[in-house]
Amino acid sequence: MTQTPPHSQAPDDDASGTVRASPPRAPEAGGDEWPPRTPVVSTSTASARPSDSKGSSAPVADRVLILRLGAMGDVIRTLPAVAALRSLYPGAHLSWLVEPASAGVVEVSGLVDETLVFPRRALVEAFREADALSFARRLGGFLETLRQRRFEVSLDFHGILKSGLLSLLSGAPTRVGFARPVGREGAPLFANRLVHGVDPECSRFDRNAALVRALDPHVEIPERPLLRPSALAQARLAARLRATGRESAGGFALIHPGSSAGAQHKRYAPEAWAAVARRLAALGVEVWIAAGPNRHERNLAESISRRAEGALVLAPETRSFDDLLALQARAGVFIASDSGPLHAASLSGVPVVQLLGPTHPVQNEPWSGSPSRRLHVPLACSPCRRGCADPACMRSIPADVVADTARELLAAVSGGEVSARSVRQPASGVSGTSGETHA
Q1: Which domain holds residue 125?
Q2: Half-sphere exposure in the Cβ direction for 159 (13 Å, CA)
Q3: What is the mean pLDDT of the chain?
Q4: Which end of the chain has less Cβ packing within 10 Å, N or C?
Q5: Is the domain of 53 the same as that of 159?
Q6: What's the pLDDT tens digit per position in 293-337?
Q7: Strand-pair category, 18-21 with 93-98
Q8: CA distances from 95 to 62, 98, 103 (A)
Q9: pTM for the whole thing?
């Protein structure tokens, strides 16, 4: 466990979940409608006040809890809103409650002072073993950790039953959350400051920004890239590439074929990825393929590499989120389905080509601050949440269109002909000419 200041230490890491300090990076239920018609007057004696802004109704707070538990892509898309929250509370202690799989994202971002990791695995194991005593001890220890922080404000970006209940149990007197329909599973019952009027069909980036803008409508959501690899991760990658004679490699097209285990219906077929690689290679573009330490993900990348018949370079495995950022930083364009790594690339300023099938094309669009193209075939059954074994929506995206779109975006960015804004306009229906392409 990473050492943290005394006020950030959990009394029992095993029982309470992991608590990690997040050092700053190098510079560069139901309640009232929110925001209320009159400014909130807080009786708190906290020293950290919201930064001055005309029309701000943000409560005074010295300790703020952020709730966005998972998955990776959802946590990544919360980062711009949290960056805005940090500007609103520059002197406050910000803690982020997250699940283990996405804790690395929070830590690498450097936006908060503390990462609280929800002990999901331990609780699930105790529940499956019907060990009520162990379950109660672990959950009780974690909740005690939350209450010891004495949070004054909580913001529930997740908007489900679990996050809403954890917000209430944290003891924060001001609990900001989404009203229905964005807030689901009864989560609005646990908030006492409800944010109304958020379009459930809007981008996840915009939805998260709305929660912070409810505190201060004038707060600025950053448009600069927010993610970058650490110097250690860059040095580690350089050393691994040096062993293969590729230390200076860069500007290549980077394919990431994976997805979470529960979202395999989002994946593009291995033979289609191989065809993309062969087409790009024929166009004179160097193509790499990425995979994490997961055995299944690595097997998938190796399978695609074999099918590509020499058109692919198998990148060193990315053993952490920081490693992934280091690899992406060398890429000229990143190509993937709707996934956490794709949103990480876009929030790092890397141009992306997103393959959309069963997921909502607007809710899951890349960050607007980076150049992007979206490839989507709007079938009658799409979008859907459950998916199918052989998704026609993904099969309908031609490999040559993927390759040509990536090549055109790479050439446009390299030649300075495209900006983040200009490629995000509504689709014209002509392949490769706008932010969204109907293949």
Answers
A1: 6-213
A2: 23
A3: 83
A4: N
A5: yes
A6: 888 999 999 999 999 999 999 999 999 999 999 999 999 999 999
A7: unpaired
A8: 11, 10, 12
A9: 0.82
